[in-house]
Amino acid sequence: MPLPPTLQDLPLPIIGAPLFIISHPALVIAQCTSGVVGSMPALNARPASQLDEWLHEITEALAAWDRAHPERKSAPYAINQIVHKSNDRLEQDMAVCAKYRVPIVITSLGARPDVNQAVHGWGGVVLHDVIDNTFARKAVDKGADGLIAVAAGAGGHAGVKSPFALVQEIREWFDGPLALSGSIATGAGVLAAQAMGADFAYIGSAFIATAEARASEAYKQCIVDSTSDDIVYSSLFTGVHGNYLKPSIRNAGLDPDHLPEGDIATMQFGSAGGPKKAWKDIWGCGQGIGAVKAVAPTAEFVARLRREYAEAHRRIVRLGGSVA
Question: I need a labelling partner for 126 at 20 to 30 A (CA). Which of 101, 116, 138, 287 fits?
């Protein structure tokens, strides 16, 4: 199945993951103008009325970029919608997305046919994130255009499946758009995702350590200073298992190696989290951060990915192989 026009001809096959609290217009615009799909959660706009202002800012900035750079136009942007029943803003936020005809909507924590139909009504594309093959089938059955396979090692609410197993099982029956998430922070990792059968790499944690990200300097530096050994997988903070930076857990007065289980009833999507303040104080992060060596502008980070991606292609050719 060919990719939808919105997802064709990207300069790099990368989708920037929506980062709760952290993603905002400056980061989305920097991602898109660097040649990757930029995204942010609708819930990052607070109060809700701010979403209209932010989408106006993004669309105007990208249109201006395209006029000034007709030879290298911006990539499309995406808005993440949490469709879990605890999100009491969904209807209002979807109306704003319809107003701006958001090109890509990423749905999480539930798949709803009415949401998918609404996006299709204005010509948008729906990508749904899943942690296993069962949820993948349900999402497509309910009308999602594409899938984001959230494998082991991804930041935030990650799954536990190996990316090799997850992509292979999905590709047995689904030939639509597929992005892979989980510890990807290099250009070689992007190429590896494609070699496994994904169309795109889905990168989140590495974008936290960029100049445009709305994260504290301490959070960014912690990513630079940490490796996969500094990540813990826990359900305590939101009720759903996710990956977090151990230093932030210690700073909250907890032992990251002895955490109790959480309860999904504690999830509060309308705020910055429950008593432990995920994701503001308890920092979500994936296992791929060992590749992040410095805080840098988004354009510089994407340029590095582009160089590494090209070098990985050349290395495969030297070995006598091909990814074509």
Answer: 287
Contact 316, 257 (CB under 8 A): no
Element (H, E) at 60: helix 50-68
Asked whether residue 273 carries a pLDDT value surpassing 50, the answer given is: no
Tokens of 139: 């999402």
Query: Would residue 140 be called left, alpha or beta, if left means φ above 0 and alpha means ψ between -120 and 50 degrees?
Result: alpha
Q: For residue 267, which phi and psi values (nearest 5 degrees)? A: -65, 135
Q: Are strands 200-203 and 178-181 parallel, antiparallel or unpaired?
A: parallel
- Alpha-helix residue ranges (DSSP H) falling in 201-252: 205-208, 217-225, 246-251
DSSP secondary structure string for all residues of 1-55: -PPPGGGSS-SSSEEEPP-TTT--HHHHHHHHHHTSBEEEEGGGSSSTTHHHHHH
Helix (H, G, I), strand (E, B) or coil at 267: coil
Which residues does residue 256 pair with via DSSP β-bridges, in sequence order? none
pLDDT per position as a tens digit, 183-223: 999 999 999 999 999 999 999 999 999 999 999 999 999 99
**Confidence (pTM):** 0.92
Rounded mean pLDDT of the chain?
A: 93
In whole angstroms, give the CA distance from residue 210 to residue 207.
Answer: 5
Residue 143 CA to residue 93 CA, distance in Å, equals 20
Residue 146 backbone phi and psi in degrees, to 5: -150, 175
Environment class of 322 (CB within 10 Å of its CB; exposed 0-12, middle 13-18, buried 19+): exposed
What pLDDT was estimated at residue 270? 44
